[in-house]
Amino acid sequence: MKIDKMKKEDLELLSYKEITSLILEEKGAMNTLELFNKIAELLELPKSSIEKKIGDYYTTLTTDKNFLLLEDGKWDLRKRHTSDKVAKADDNEEEEEEEEVEIKDEITEEDDDYDSQISDDDDFDDGDDDLKDLVVLDEEELELEQ
User: What's this model's pTM, rounded to 2 decimal places?
Assistant: First the structure.
């Protein structure tokens, strides 16, 4: 049965994720706003609720593994796309992680050079002198001062 032909009462029993799956199955890839507007239309939601709920809806799409955000900004069902596309995205993530490790290694080497330049005789102010005059008060003492 087409989603447009379903009764509102039947649609209300479904979650937004389930309705989204039905819409994408029938209509193909759509962006977030188009999807949510279609849901609002089917459930006869007021326009004000769209603004309030679209952020949560987007979060739902991004956390659910059944949906895939395509390069053009449209959502589609993950099952429609080959694992090659997903693998390419994973490869890019691995490359980024390798770059981060290289950057961290460079920073560590620079830190080692800096540490070797500092001698034990250098004056180091740890700030403890600033705290010597501080006094800890309990609640009763605070009430007496007021």
Answer: 0.54
